[in-house]
Write a structure and sequence with these properties.
By secondary structure, the protein is α+β, with helices and mostly antiparallel strands. Helix content is 60%, strand content 22%. A hairpin with a 2-residue loop joins strand 2 and strand 3. The N and C termini lie far apart (26 Å).
Length: 65
């Protein structure tokens, strides 16, 4: 399981590096990740200081820091 978190974190980092700030719901859909997979990987990236979250209306967005 932990290795999948790291792999998914890498996929998310690459996606954000190419696309920029993105709604988390779009990120999950584009990368075909479950909510659990996406949030675990985002937590990993956040812990390492690699991402920043912002709230716009009802949406939660993420971008590389």
């Amino acid at each position: 399981m932990n290795e999948n978190i790291g792999l998914n974190a890498g996929k998310i980092w690459k996606f954000l590096n190419e696309k920029g700030e993105t709604k988390i719901i779009k990120l999950k859909k584009e990368l075909d990740l479950s909510s659990e997979e996406a949030y675990l990987a985002l937590g990993w990236l956040a812990r390492e200081g690699n991402v920043v979250f912002t709230k716009k209306g009802l949406s939660l967005l993420v971008k590389l820091s």
